[in-house]
User: Which sequence fits this backbone?
């Protein structure tokens, strides 16, 4: 196996061999430099900085985030939600007095939906909103939903309110609408919340210094990769506190996904 | 569940109890149970759907259907009959009493299905009957919003200042609108206790809320008793609570005003690192010690309270306890007798308190 290779180099002049080896050495050095640099940079970076470096376009504050979101108001009562006020905050707001079950895919593209039960779905005017919510919540990437029906007296509507992300009584004041949207974004779509969740999980897991460092390093790599990597999964599988491991993984899954969707590479 | 059995629509092939009460069925209890068993462990212990052997050697099965415990007892389960203890005098008593786990399971599934159908129909009937409430609640919300706009047109920086500067009619309108909305929200809790924990918890300043209720409830209004409400103590802490929380201080203050026979209603607010405590104190009809244990249950009222107000239904404190549970709040009541009576009704210092944990 090795003999033909030796024979090949023996056939070449000393200068050609020198060029071959020098070229290979330079290529290895460049590769190694990049890896060392990346390792050194990550080592000296917080998880938040890693996230920001990968996804520089991610809104830095809730107010910034508010300016980019798409919200649908699915309600047959036009004045139920202070739409003009919310538009002034920079929210892209779409009023939909009625929708069809066939619009479900389009509704999934919204960040947040204000949803009523009665009179909003053409095919089922009585309880359409309830079924719509069930379907929107059946996929993990669905919009956040604020239930705005007054059917709290209805024993058949219990699931509608329970499965919604928040519930508001109509009429909704501008201040309450703004605070509610901000709170929902902060809890469900804002990186610092998940960074804190990750850190809290780590702190509660009673890790040794070495384990702690490894978890951070592997989390940084997951964020760069845009997905939770196998080494991270293997690392947390060894933790004594598996509930903390689960919390850390779920926070990291969100961060990696968000980083990937806002990555400059993508 | 019991009315379902009372209709006779469900066959009861073995000795059966629901929540400890015997159900009439095809078989009465075997003499082994009625004559030899003194412990009735089948009724005391948890039991399973697969069956448990009792100390006599017979089997009992147990299942929970719509929060009711159904027990089939005194049967021969999936064991070899020869393994049964020998009671020569009563051996004929065990004839035809076999109930295998699979038979019990099939029977209880039938009961569950029937109960589910009945429950769904009841919900549908309630849903139709209560439909008009939704529009009414919406209108009440609109009225409240309009009264708040009206209030905002008065001078003052804070809402409390604007309220104070408003004329008596506006104040009365605000009070009526607030109470109207709260009455609907209380009704929603009686009808659907789950609604106490709908939505997300929001940050709330307890002192501000109690002070707002003080302003509103202290206002004189026709056909409603009025008392001055004094707040002692101060608390600036905010806590995360469901929207329904408001109904706790509202109910306690409203009750205190309704039943007070002398003096002011006093609210004490105390704040520690662990909790915020709010105590509502008034002088009114004594609540006896036995009644204090049940006063937060559905429909329960003190006998002296009934004598003062015959129309009450015993729903306010029940709703408050539902809301307290949903919010993780501890609710308590205390009645210290005074040595006198008003219209033959013994008087006491009544204290209702709730404790909101801060973490």
Assistant:
């Amino acid at each position: 196996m090795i003999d033909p290779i030796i024979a090949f180099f023996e056939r070449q002049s000393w200068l050609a061999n020198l060029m071959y080896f020098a070229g290979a050495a330079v290529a290895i050095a460049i590769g190694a430099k990049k890896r060392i640099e990346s390792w050194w940079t990550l080592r000296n970076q917080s998880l938040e900085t890693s996230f920001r470096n990968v996804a520089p376009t991610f809104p830095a504050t809730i107010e910034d985030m508010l300016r980019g979101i798409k919200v649908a108001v699915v309600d047959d009562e036009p004045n139920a939600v202070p739409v003009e006020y919310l538009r002034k905050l920079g929210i892209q707001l779409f009023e939909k007095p009625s929708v069809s079950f066939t619009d479900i895919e389009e509704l999934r593209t919204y960040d947040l939906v204000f949803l009523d039960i009665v009179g909003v779905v053409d095919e089922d005017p009585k309880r359409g909103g309830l079924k719509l919510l069930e379907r929107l919540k059946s996929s993990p990437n669905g919009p956040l939903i604020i239930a705005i029906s007054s059917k709290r007296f209805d024993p058949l509507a219990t699931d509608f309110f329970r499965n919604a992300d928040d519930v508001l009584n109509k009429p909704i004041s501008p201040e309450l609408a703004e605070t509610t949207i901000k709170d929902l974004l902060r809890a469900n779509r804002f990186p610092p919340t998940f960074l804190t969740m990750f850190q809290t999980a780590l702190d509660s897991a009673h890790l040794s210094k070495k384990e702690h460092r490894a978890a951070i390093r592997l989390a940084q790599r997951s964020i760069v990769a845009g997905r939770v990597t196998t080494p991270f999964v293997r690392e947390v599988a060894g933790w004594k506190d598996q509930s903390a491991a689960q919390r850390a993984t779920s926070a990291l899954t969100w961060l990696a996904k968000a980083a990937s969707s806002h990555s400059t590479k993508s | 569940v019991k009315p379902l059995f009372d209709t006779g629509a469900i066959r009861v092939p073995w000795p059966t109890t629901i929540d400890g009460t015997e159900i009439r069925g095809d078989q009465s209890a075997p003499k082994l149970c009625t004559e030899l068993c003194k412990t009735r462990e089948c009724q005391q212990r948890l039991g399973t759907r697969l069956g448990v052997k009792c100390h006599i050697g017979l089997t009992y099965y147990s299942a929970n259907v719509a929060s009711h415990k159904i027990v089939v007892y005194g049967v021969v389960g999936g064991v070899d009959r020869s393994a049964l203890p020998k009671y020569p005098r009563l051996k004929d008593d065990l004839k035809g009493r076999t109930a295998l786990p699979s038979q019990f399971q099939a029977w209880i599934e039938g009961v569950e299905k029937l109960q589910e159908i009945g429950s769904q129909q009841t919900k549908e009937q309630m849903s139709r009957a209560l439909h008009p409430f939704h529009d009414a609640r919406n209108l009440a919300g609109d009225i409240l919003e309009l009264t708040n706009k009206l209030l905002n047109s008065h001078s003052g920086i804070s809402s409390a200042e604007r309220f104070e500067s408003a004329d008596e009619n506006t104040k009365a309108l605000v009070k009526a609108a607030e109470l109207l909305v709260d009455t609907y929200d209380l009704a929603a809790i009686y009808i659907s206790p789950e609604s106490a924990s709908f939505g997300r918890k929001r940050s709330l300043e307890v002192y501000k809320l109690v002070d707002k209720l003080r302003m509103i409830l202290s206002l004189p209004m026709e056909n409603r008793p009025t008392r001055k409400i004094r707040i002692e103590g101060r608390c600036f802490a905010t806590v995360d609570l469901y929207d329904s929380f408001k109904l706790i201080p509202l109910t306690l203050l409203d009750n205190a005003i309704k039943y007070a026979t002398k003096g002011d209603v006093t609210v004490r607010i105390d704040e520690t690192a662990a909790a915020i405590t709010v105590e509502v104190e008034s002088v009114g009809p004594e609540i006896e010690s036995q009644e204090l244990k049940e006063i937060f249950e559905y429909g329960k009222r003190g006998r002296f309270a009934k004598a003062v107000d015959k129309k009450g239904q015993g729903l306010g404190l029940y709703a408050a306890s539902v809301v307290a549970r949903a919010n993780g709040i501890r609710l308590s009541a205390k009645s210290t007798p005074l040595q006198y009576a008003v219209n033959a009704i013994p008087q006491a210092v009544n204290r209702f308190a709730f404790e909101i944990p801060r973490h």
